[in-house]
Design goal:
Blueprint: H1 4-31, E1 32-33, H2 39-64, H3 73-76, E2 90-91, H4 92-115, H5 119-139, H6 144-157, H7 163-174, H8 178-188, H9 196-207
């Protein structure tokens, strides 16, 4: 079981994985071709929002231990070789294969981190792991394209009166485990603006256990 600085380093890596996924997702959404009814692009819009939401959970967890989350471009560039995407336009099938390959890698890493973590950090990683599993299920196998097409159709035909309500509906649709998310929200319902000295004391106490 990892504790102290080692556990924080793993959370920083998890943060980088999620932020890089969001960047890759945006790029693929812009360059994908032969995407019937923009089905994959719609799926990527929601998936990228998920990845940013989960990155925010990780960042909040780091802050709670008095650690400054590192979302700088220079930090993300450390993993540039892992997030390679070809130049120019990309066919939908090729984009889907690239996504599956990358998601398999980051999901394996997240599961490993979860196995090495307990308590509050483990609850955050539970949300991420279950989310990755749901996304892979939508992308993999012969039914992957149909599932994405269905997701896009439901997204487009939802009878919702306002833009704000559409955003709320999409977020609710992305929640795969309500109890886990509620637990994670309770974990992070703390004072982010607590004095740095208090956070440092809390971090020191946790590191000694």
């Amino acid at each position: 079981m990892r504790t102290g600085r080692a556990a924080e380093d793993e959370l920083e890596r998890q943060l980088r994985d999620l932020l890089c996924l969001a960047v890759v997702g945006d790029h693929l959404r812009w360059v994908v071709t032969d995407d019937g009814d923009d089905a994959l692009a719609d799926w990527l819009t929601d998936a990228s929002a998920d990845w940013r939401d989960w990155a925010d959970l990780v960042a909040r967890e780091l802050r709670s231990y008095g650690v400054a989350p590192d979302g700088r471009v220079r930090s993300l560039a450390e993993d540039i070789s892992l997030n390679w995407v070809p130049d120019g336009w990309l066919a939908a099938d090729a984009a889907r294969r690239l996504l599956v390959e990358r998601l398999l890698t980051v999901a394996d890493c997240a599961r490993y981190r979860r196995a090495q973590t307990s308590g509050e950090r483990g609850a955050v990683l539970d949300v991420i792991c279950s989310g990755f599993d749901a996304q892979l299920q939508a992308l993999r196998g012969p039914s992957g394209s149909a599932a994405i097409q269905r997701h896009s159709s439901e997204r487009r035909t939802a009878d919702v009166p306002s833009t704000a309500d559409r955003a709320t509906l999409a977020r609710e649709d992305r929640v795969h485990s309500g109890s886990l998310v509620r637990d994670a929200c309770r974990i992070h319902a703390r004072e982010d603006c607590a004095p740095a000295s208090d956070r440092a004391d809390s971090h020191a106490r946790r590191s000694t256990h």
